[in-house]
Amino acid sequence: MKNNRLYLAAIAAALISAALTGCGENAKADSPEKNNNTKTADGKDLTTITALADLTPHSEILEYVEPKLNEKGYTIDIVSTASDATWNEKTQNGEVDFNFTQHEPYLIEWNEINNGTLVNIGGVHVEPIAAYSTKYDSADEVPDGATVVLPDDATNEYRALRILEQQGWIKLGNTENARASVADIEEFIKPIEITELDSYQINAHINEFDVYINNTNKVIEAGLDATKYLFREGEDSPYANIIVTTPDKADEPGLKALVEILQSEDTAKFILDKYNGAVIPVTKVSE
């Protein structure tokens, strides 16, 4: 019965979202404040690079590096921060120069399903998937029979199940291509009840479960404290968020300059300080 209520709530939320989009209510969210710089220090016009980037932390990181990118003759126009399932298609079709929203396993899966040719030109940061609770302060406090909600998309569900396995709560059977679902659980070492739900809907239902598992960016965007987790992926996670573009643009000077700045130690320090360790830069910071 609980799953049915969640399903209906998810449908209602999706319909409301679609209606608002159709009425143009998302226009402000799609248009973050634009950097007004249009020229380099020596008076030359800046070349615009167009992007699709999640609001947090992606667009915030891009806004931080833009002054340094301006020095190299480029500026970024973030076309939208309201993520949806069309972003890779729009990038593939050349509507924007790059997107900044996903990790490589997701990109590989999208290319396979859609006959896409998008490429990863550089990792920037890891948003570790983590387990949280509004009821318990540590994993040891979570009782047997606890209810757990996790994302239902193939890649992130696998990540969620993996941290449950690493925590010693479940044992997974053989999984391939970093994909798994609840059906792949071979053994429940700790008795728990798992519900699968769209990751965008999880934050609206966190008080209905003993434990919720979600991506760091969605936790931060909801105004929750992503540093107060029960357990999470390690810093060696293979799910770094990447800059994605088409093969013909992969070597463009502006994009190469952007990746170089994003992977600098200065940007890494900004990420660590801004997100208090909840977001982990791929570049190591010197002691």
From TrEMBL:
PROSITE patterns found in the cross-reference section: PROKAR_LIPOPROTEIN (PS51257)
Matching entries from Pfam families are given as: Lipoprotein_9
Name of the protein described by the UniProt record: NLPA lipoprotein
Organism of provenance: Ruminococcus albus 8
Lineage of the source organism?
Bacteria, Bacillati, Bacillota, Clostridia, Eubacteriales
Which compartments is it annotated to reside in? Membrane
Keyword flag Oxidoreductase: no
Q: Which Gene3D superfamilies match?
A: Periplasmic binding protein-like II
Give the similarity note: Belongs to the NlpA lipoprotein family.
Q: Name one GO cellular component term.
A: membrane
Q: Which UniProt keywords apply?
A: Lipoprotein, Membrane, Palmitate, Signal
Q: Which residues form the signal peptide?
A: 1-29
